[in-house]
Design a protein that fits this description.
The protein has 185 residues and is an alpha+beta fold. Helices cover 17% and strands 36% of the residues. It is built from 3 helices and 9 strands, in the order H-H-E-E-E-E-E-E-E-E-H-E. The protein is globular and about 40 Å long.
Length: 185
């Protein structure tokens, strides 16, 4: 028997068994996000690891306005080590709910898109939480590559209140000495 039909069947059954966003309460978002607070550079402090970001270090995202009403979604990272060359992945993002700017769609490879939501943004502390309705994706981000343990735990508590399992989030090394440390990818 050829393995491809078996793999497709396993993938289909897995997709059916997965929790759909419709099974969960909606995520709570801020009433409105000021674009001036959202655009710019954000360091990825932690995420729920998935294939595209797993094993990356020094990750950061830059949201930059374009002339067409959309935004450049620029993801910078290094594979596994700070000595590795920095990689830039260029995408485009656009708001799904202007003028509140709390729901977004991003595309890095046509025709595939990904929706995400702003769960929390504090311009004073420079902290940002992004998530997905399925609770399978989440990001803790900051304007600085450093975050205190107290702030990090407070942001994990915010995610837990939204139905996330905080133990699934892993820190992204932003400094060489963080590689291999407990709690880091």
């Amino acid at each position: 028997m050829h393995p491809l039909p078996l793999l497709l069947l396993v993938a289909l059954l897995s997709a059916c068994a997965a929790r759909s966003p419709g099974d969960l309460p909606p995520l709570k978002r801020p009433e409105r996000v000021a674009l001036s607070d959202f655009v710019g550079t954000w360091y990825v402090i932690a995420n729920i690891p998935y294939f595209a970001e797993r094993g990356r270090v020094g990750s950061r995202v830059e949201y930059r306005p374009r002339g067409d009403g959309r935004f450049d979604d620029l993801y910078y990272s290094r594979k596994g080590d700070f000595a590795a060359p920095e990689r830039l992945l260029k995408g485009v993002a656009w708001p799904l709910d202007p003028p509140t700017y709390t729901r977004w769609r991003s595309r890095f490879y046509w025709p595939f898109t990904f929706d995400f939501e702003v769960l929390y943004l504090d311009p004073q502390t420079g902290h940002l939480l992004l998530g997905h309705a399925s609770r399978e994706y989440a990001w803790v981000m900051a304007r600085s590559p450093d975050m205190s343990e107290q702030d990090y735990q407070a942001l994990l508590a915010r995610l837990a209140a939204q139905g996330y399992d905080p133990s699934r989030l892993k820190r992204v090394p932003q400094r060489p000495e963080q590689i291999g440390q407990p709690g880091f990818q």
